[in-house]
Amino acid sequence: MGKLVALTLLGATLALIGERLLTFRDRVTTSRGLKPTEPQNCHLIEGLENGSEDIDILPSGLAFISTGLKYPGMPNFAPDKPGRIFLMDLNEPNPKAQELEISDGFDKESLNPHGISTFIDKDNTVYLYVVNHPHMDSTVEIFKFEEQRRSLTYLKTIKHELLKSVNDIVVLGPEQFYATRDHYFTNYFLVLLEMILDLHWSYVLFYSPREVKVVAPGFSSANGITISLDQKYVYVADVTAKNMHIMRKHDNWDLTQVKVIHLGTLVDNLTVDPATGDILAGCHPNPMKLLVYNPEDPPGSEVLRIQDVLSDNPRVSTVYANDGSVLQGSTVASVYRKKMLIGTIFHNALYCEL
Questions:
Q1: From CA 340, how far away is CA 319, in angstroms rounded?
Q2: CA distance linking residue 244 with residue 234, whole number of Å
Q3: Residues 6+ away with beta carbon under 8 Å from 177
Q4: What is the pLDDT of residue 26?
Q5: Radius of gyration of the chain (CA)
Q6: C-alpha–C-alpha distance, residues 328 and 127, integer Å
Q7: How far is the C-alpha of 204 from the C-alpha of 168, rounded, in Å?
Q8: Between 48 and 79, whose confidence is greater?
Q9: Is 252 exposed, middle or buried (0-12, 13-18, 19+ CB in 10 A)?
């Protein structure tokens, strides 16, 4: 009887793994059909050739850009160079990318920037929060932006046992933020197993000096995160599930799900159009081409605009789509006064006038 039970359990386990493998294969091999959609006035940004994973634009039109991310399993064309933070002033007629100097006291060689978010305090001081992966760990670095000197002053590094495999961040107050954990495991092979089994163990957490807690569990791979203009709703991208979650924010910082919008493409970072409240999503239409990079057949890029997200029929339209001939592996799009920046994991960045 014991052997029969063991064989039954083994058979059920193998059947489950087989089913999950087939499901995982479908997720990563299914490509979204791309109809080229490219605004006429676009050009690549000089100096941003090694990725521009996240972009955050201030109300003044100053755009912060993180570049040089080294992420397990993703291509990297400058593995020996540390990451950097760039600035662009979108009020200029022909804006250029300028590297921001970082003050002493911070190990610049270990900078491996991922998601970023800005916070403006009551006296209009700007703070930049950077998800960092020094030596493949996860920390959040806090800098003060010195606008006159075009530099960053290092203030603090935040570490916590829940801040593992951090992907993106949205800051809501002084040292108060939501962050996404895109994988439960940190070992690369266990991460692959987690993805294949689709364990849904990733989450959104809230951090403050007084309290750190998981506020929204159960994601396949929580990725980009941002907040609505009225600060009432938090938007979370579940990249491998190919959808976006609309979450209601409560006074105790907990999040509850309002709805899920299925987009049929791998959804990376999310931003909000400050003029309309629409959501812009940087997406990956060809997941297998990211995992197995071939310069002769590169991954494409896609940017979606999601309108009326709280309605019964949200509208999804394509803002940008390219087969990889111009832009590879888009992660984010951010807009300011009819100007749009599109970033990537490891490739160029694009500037467009809409």
A1: 10
A2: 10
A3: 117, 129, 140, 169, 170, 171, 206, 207
A4: 55
A5: 20
A6: 30
A7: 10
A8: 48
A9: exposed
pLDDT for the residue 11: 54
Per-residue pLDDT for 18 more than 70? no
Q: Whole-model pTM?
A: 0.92
pLDDT tens digits for range 293-327: 999 999 999 999 999 999 999 999 999 999 999 99
Of 136, 45, 46, the residue nearest 83 (C-alpha) = 136
Spell out a b/e string for 105-132, using b for 16 or more CB atoms within 10 Å of the CB, else e: ebeeeebbbbbbbbbeeeeeebbbbbbb
- What pLDDT shows up at residue 13? 45
Cα(242)–Cα(305) distance, integer angstroms: 15
114 labelled catalytic = yes
Give the per-residue pLDDT at 187: 86
HSE, side-chain direction, 13 A CA sphere, residue 138? 22
Question: Is 62 strand, coil or helix?
Answer: strand
Mean pLDDT of 82-94: 96
Q: For residue 12, what pLDDT is reported? A: 47
What are the tens digits of pLDDT across the range 184-242?
A: 998 888 988 888 888 999 999 999 999 999 999 999 999 999 999 999 999 999 999 99
* Lookup: tokens for 197: 């089994």
**Both tokens assigned to 248:** 């209601």
CA atoms of 295 and 230, how far apart (whole Å): 43
Average pLDDT across the chain, whole number: 91
Residue 187's Cβ-side half-sphere holds a number of Cα atoms within 13 Å equal to 4
Residue 72 reports pLDDT greater than 90: no
The residue from 43, 114, 262, 284 that is catalytic is 114
Q: Show the CA angle centred on residue 281, arms to residues 167 and 236, nearest 5°.
A: 50
CA distances (Å), 180 to each of 230, 328, 346, in order? 21, 24, 21
What is the maximum alpha-carbon separation in the chain? 79
